[in-house]
Amino acid sequence: MSLSDNQIYAEIIYDDVMANRYIVVPPLVYDDVRYDAVASQSQHRRQVEIRAWEKFLVSLQVSLGEDASCDQLETLAAVGEMAEEKPTVRAKMPMSVAGDVDALRKAMKGVGTDEATIINILTSCTNDQRKVLQQAYNRAYEKDLTKDLKKELSGDFEDVIVALMTPEADYLAQELHDACKHKNGRVMVEILFTADNFLIKSIKSAYERLFSTSLEESLTKATSETFQALMQRVVEAKRSDTVNEDFGRVIANELYNDVDCLENRYVFFAESLHKAMAGQGTKDQDLIRLVVSRCEVDLGNIKTEYHNLYDKLLENDIKADTSGDYRKVLLALVGE
What percent of the chain has pLDDT over 90? Predict the structure, then answer.
């Protein structure tokens, strides 16, 4: 597609979205990253489509560059605001890829590290946009952005940044691998029962690529016979995207006497966040996973339920339980 073709195509997409028509967006390619996006008005698919639509907007911005209309991009990005779910991190529109890559390089070059710049750039864009930054950085400097970040950072702050830079399916596959290793059924439920079928399939593929074994096999070794049969149904991704409530109740009651993950997903995550910070010490891996995995999905809703449950702001509890750049990056993700 030529630049002029892309400009015309952007106009067509804009007009169709504003008219609430059914549209199918063809895949666009940026380097080796292919983004497929489908947008329709079917309510039961709405959340999946919004995430796909944001991916399309990322690729459209890259494709059009400076010729993209800011007003159009902002209006198109606002389509996501019609969703019931309230993320705290959204796609950055417009996005200056070259400018952000240059700023990240300068933040790590020479003596000392500019952590504030790293936080500002990486928490103001989505996982898909960070993939674009990763590729552009590699092209410009022949270096791996994530590896450079790891060299400059340390501790829990490093863990958050690496989680942000890791593709979603890879990150969740790694968390599931750790959950299987430690037989942590709650984390298995947290990830698999709140993911749609497409994400589950992506996680399964990533798991096999990263660990040379299937997710099903790891779950079988890590869980009881009853749980194996139930979990198998989930990882086969044969359920509807809205988790079958009766099926979910069986699992939740059998394992934890806790059906919050099915009755109110936001309450479930709010309680999980509270448990990660309650008592002596912080369960940092849980806190990081919960914030990173939900910030682009429904962390705004979770924050509301957290306040309803504990009469406290999630941000304030994070402030009390963390410090330094670790605190700053988490607060940026929760949208303080």
Answer: 49
